[in-house]
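My current task is to audit a protein record that another person submitted. Alongside the sequence sits a line of tokens, each denoting a local backbone shape. Please read both lines and tell me whether the tokens look consistent with the sequence. Do not assume that whoever made the record got everything right. Thanks in advance; the entry in question is below.
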Amino acid sequence: MVKKLGAGLAASVVCAAFVAGTPASAQTANDVATWPNRNISLIAPQPAGGGFDTVARVLADRMRPFLGQTIVVENRTGAGTRVGTQSAAKAPADGYTLMIGALSNMALNPGLYDNLPYDPLKDFKLVGMAVTWSYTLVARKDLPMESLKDVIAFAKANPEKITYASAGMGSGQHIATAVTEKLAGVKLTHVPYRGSQDAYQDILGGRVDLFFDISSAAKAQVDAGTVKALAVSSKERQPFHPNVPSVYETGVAPLDMESWFGLFAPAGTPEPILTKLRAAMAQVMAAPDVQELFAKSGGQVPKTSAAEQEAKVASDIERWTKLIREAGVKGD
């Protein structure tokens, strides 16, 4: 259970928070000390069924006993992840609106869109990272090349002959392949689809060559033998694909890409509330059954400190903005 702060300590922490600056929601010291005393909204900026929604529902269910209030998941969709993320950024910083942030809406969008309606660093405060997933580069089963090195060698000799699918312009799948293509110095042909399901239909049908999908989704196809795995996007190999090298390991491109998901609060949320949220989340993520739940889909719970996680978010925003712009990738 999350230990409650002593009355004197809680009061001093609250006072310190207000000396530092009154939050936008103009909460009183008593409001902060008694938080939460009603339901909490957790925004998932994509539809039900995807990574955002999965992480949101795990956290909502598991954090409730530690906070003593129901956490209601709200799937606010539109414009990719931008509508839901913007709504969270503009919400009162009172601890009653939280958001699932991920590599896509926090670190990839700044490079994809020139006029993003939110600032990932200025508008949000990280509560904690929940899970990371790699991407797995899969090939149609009958592709003559058996390794990523072979694919890149063929692509260098035959520009634009190799095709790759994505779930849409500016999607994580698009970016993973486009950046690899740029770093490897080859030219491939992009075939965007409306979602992963359509992309897999053409991969399985042999009509497109490659698909760099999130590993949690690709794993089922790899395990079934309907596609062959060529590489993973993380710098190191993944435990669920022990025989599949990383792109970095093959030497064709210095790629290091993992899709992380975490819990964020609007900037200005009082520090005592963030402290309670972080304590509750730490308890949840330390639970063996939660770690096993994510591991079944190839996910890994980060073992890094809060400071290291904040540094990673900032670093990924800077790094991916540069890589995406160099690769010339734009969102819809």
